[in-house]
Please model this.
Amino acid sequence: TQLLEQSPQFLSIQEGENLTVYCNSSSVFSSLQWYRQEPGEGPVLLVTVVTGGEVKKLKRLTFQFGDARKDSSLHITAAQPGDTGLYLCAGADGYGQNFVFGPGTRLSVLP
Amino acid sequence: DTGVSQDPRHKITKRGQNVTFRCDPISEHNRLYWYRQTLGQGPEFLTYFQNEAQLEKSRLLSDRFSAERPKGSFSTLEIQRTEQGDSAMYLCASSLGWEDTQYFGPGTRLTVL
Model:
C-alpha cells in the first residue's frame, strides 16, 4: 500500500508571507499531481510532475519533484488570500493501477 | 463547459433509502474514477472503469455500493440502504489513459439523516 503524507496539516499565515508544504512517501511514484480544493468543490489540478528533480513554476507557485520521485514540495511566494484552500498531492504508481491522495494541507492566508 | 460534471450536487436522504449519483466524464476520456471524501481528509479511491469495464474496487466499496458505466461514457454510483456513515462528498474523475492526469468533477455531497 502506497501512502502519501503531507505536512503541515494546517497552516495559517499573513498575506505576503512565503510558505512551503511537503508531500512525502516511502514509495516511488511515476507521476505526482498537486490539486487545490475549495470547500464544497472538487479538487482542481495545479500541476503534474513526472521527472525526478523536475521543477515547475505556475506564477507564484513553485513545485518540485524529488530526485527519487518519492516526495514533492510546493512553495508559494507572497501568499494572497485567494491562495486559501486545501492543497492535495496525489500519486500514481508505474502501472496506473493505484492512485492515492495525501490528507492535504489546509492553508489559510489572512489579509 | 467540457469538464467533468456530476449530478446532483447535493443529496439529503433518510437512513435506509437508496440513492444514485451520475457522473459525465470528459468526452474522450477512457478512464473514470469514483472517490469518497470525508471532512478534513483527502479523497479515498472507491473504484475505476476503463471504458465500460470495472477494473478495480476498493475494500471501502461494500456490497451496498454498485457502480456502472454501461456504454463507456457516463457512470452511475448507487448506494443501497444508506447509513449515516455514508455521508460524504462523492467525487468523480476522468482521465485519457492510465498514465494521464485525472480531472475532477465538482462532487455530490450526500447527507444521510
Chain A touches chain B at residues 30-31, 33, 35, 40-45, 48, 88, 90, 92, 95-104, 106 (CB under 8 Å). The first strand of chain A starts at residue 5 and ends at 7. The CA atoms of residues 28 and 70 of chain A lie 5 Å apart. Chain A has a mean pLDDT of 91.
